[in-house]
Amino acid sequence: MKSTILALGLLCATAVGSAKAQPAATAAPAEIKIGALYASSGPYASISMPVFDGLKLWVDQVNAAGGVEVKPSAKKIPLKLIAYDDQSSTATAATLYNQLITQDHVDLLVADSGSVLTSVGVPIAREHKQFLFDVSGTGAAFFTPDNPYIALMADPVSTIWPHYISDFLGDVGAKQGIKTVAILYSTNDFTGTQAAALKGFFEHDGKVKIVYYQGVPTSTSNYTVLLNNIAAANPDAVLELGYVGNDIAFLRNLQDSGNQFRFVFSIYAGTEKDEIQKNVGISAMTHIFSYVPPSNYEYTPNFGMTQQQFRAAWEKKYPPSSGVEFGANAVYGYMTGLVIERTLATTKSLGQMDIHDAVFALSDKLKTLDGTFTLRKDGAQIGEVTPLGQLQPNGKDLDLVAVYPPDLAKGKAVLGK
């Protein structure tokens, strides 16, 4: 009898031990709450709304398929997007970031587009120990070794992003007589960091001399006097670094001025080609150099849609009559969703440091329509570096042709006389 009881006891103990050894799925939440900001008006609306629309497209696709796979819960869970309009105001954005964290208690926090509206979110997320999915805030100051609560998703950090510009001018440009450059930039974290990086690249390389280097407020809307000052310095190349509104004003004023330079660069002439072309026309953009974004360059993804598939899905959801332009920022919003999707499928829990670990574990492994996702230890994006391109005539339209570096080039650059 005693031996039978002992055997039963051992059997029960073994069963209990086996049960403990089997990891049980965490109780599943009813929904995964994603908090995001967008700007429907103001100077950053043109880059913010496409990001937000791209993120919404991803959310709708995931929910139509039954939700997102969440590893700790071992099941699909619907997504709930909680989003507020900051109207391009950093003060409003700061209030709304706080609201998403402290009142809405979102599981995942996504920054608004660009460095200006991201800048106020970085310290708030850090203070509350909330991981920040930084879509396109590339300012170098956001990334420090002592802040684990941020990672840059869709753009390279500004300190490395413009490297192909200086490389091209020091290589192809120098061989064709480009000797001097003017740099005009808007004084914000995004373009200010790029300008400083370019200045350092040129000075280190020594092949092209900087003859004009000037920062102006991001609110600048007339470049006539500035262009006259640049022309007086007689540079071979002109680099204008600003947001969409800056580029529109600069390109209009450049055409009106009659000034011609052998090489002119504008960030958004290529990055948001449709938006710029609608506002300045083809002639003002012809032969302008720009970054070639993933909306105009096809990478082979190992997760998510290809560029062509995404564009088809975008145009179905947002037809031309909607007024929503397809461009790089549309890709950035969707691509951020893909990172979130893979993060939730691999994280140990919804704890913010586990989210951090899952995001960083994707580095060098995740390839999307935006290229290879590669993070530095401080969260800066060092993959997804865009080729340098040029807007070249093609009948009644312009093609954004990748011209540098040689291994990514699809054509040859045409420099002015």
Helix content: 40-55%
The low-confidence runs, each spanning 5 or more residues with pLDDT under 50, are: 1-24
Largest sheet: 5 strands, parallel
Please count the beta strands (DSSP E, at least 2 residues each).
Answer: 16
Structure class: alpha/beta
Helix segment count? 15
If you compute it from the alpha carbons, what radius of gyration comes out, rounded to the nearest whole angstrom?
24 Å
Strand content is 15-25%
What is the distance, rounded to the nearest whole angstrom, between the alpha carbons of the first and last residues?
104 Å
Describe how the helices and strands are arranged.
Elements: H1 2-21, E1 32-38, H2 45-64, E2 68-70, E3 75-77, E4 79-85, H3 90-102, E5 108-110, H4 114-119, H5 121-127, E6 132-134, E7 150-152, H6 163-175, E8 180-186, H7 189-205, E9 209-216, H8 224-233, E10 237-241, H9 244-257, E11 263-266, H10 267-271, H11 273-280, H12 282-285, E12 289-291, H13 307-317, H14 328-346, H15 352-361, E13 367-368, E14 371-372, E15 388-394, E16 397-404
Parallel strand pairs: 1-4, 1-5, 5-6, 6-7, 8-9, 8-10, 10-11
Antiparallel strand pairs: 2-3, 12-15, 13-14, 15-16
